[in-house]
Amino acid sequence: MERRFFGNTDMQVSALGFGGHEIGQSTVEHVSRLLQQALDDGLNVIDTAECYGRSEELIGQAVGHRRDEYYLFTKCGHASGLDLPNWTPRLLEQSIERSLLRLRTDYLDLIQLHSCSEELLRRGEVIAALQRARTAGKVRYIGYSGDRRPALYAVQSGAFDALQTSINIADQEAIDLLLPLARAHHMGVIAKHPIANVAWFSQRNDSTHRLYRHRLAILNYDFLHGDVDTAVSIALRFTLSIPGVDVAVVGTTNPQRWQQNAGYLAAGPLPEQQVAQIRKRWKAVTWWRQPLPGSKLGWHAWT
Length: 303
What we know:
Layout: E1 3-5, E2 12-14, E3 16-19, H1 28-40, E4 45-47, H2 55-63, E5 71-76, H3 89-102, E6 108-114, H4 118-123, H5 125-135, E7 139-145, H6 148-157, E8 162-166, H7 173-177, H8 179-184, E9 188-192, H9 207-219, H10 228-241, E10 247-251, H11 255-264, H12 272-285
Parallel strand pairs: 3-4, 3-10, 4-5, 5-6, 6-7, 7-8, 8-9, 9-10
Antiparallel strand pairs: 1-2
């Protein structure tokens, strides 16, 4: 699998990474089969978070013995769950210690603040907590995971080595808002939701799926009306064809799914003309700012 330099770090990451959110309720036997095969096939990025159920613990049990074969990224700030963030410096330090223990490692390649607000970032205490962990050798690099204005401030601050943000056919704000500046700061960039959660086909009904499904109905890309595998291939290759994107993390509990996604990338980058068409369609419709039915959020929720 293609390897890419990750910003200004010393890491060369696989273009496709593994996202640990989906495995939070799995068994160690299942996660072991899933990750062992992915590592054998060229995976070298595993991204997780303390709030992803048992994800960290399961990863540590499943592939902790192969620690030198992959880069380990995790996130802190939501130990009690996504709706109960914990942002005091002491709690962040404790979160990192717990992650090290669960992941069965003595260092993390990347620790990320998990979608904390711009206000908290501006205070500086949360950034300083991560910097202390880096100085202590517990983490090698520090990053921010999030979107829109908080992510913009994180990039502008110059404090972070990496950015994880949403980039896909249904969410292209970051391509113009964040990526040029992130590249100027030599940050590594991780694309989350790189296949837009296959929302045009999936029956899941969480908030992200509903939002992407609504947007894609408006965008109405022609390739979404054909074969699902072809559409997924185009969506994934689109994300990884965007300048500045180093790695796309995809979560799955299906061992064959990661192999399928890796196989899509064998076709190479999406043709420039097709990337341009997808970008043109996005730019043509975003000015509508269509709200999600039943939601107060507009198309550009951050404005």
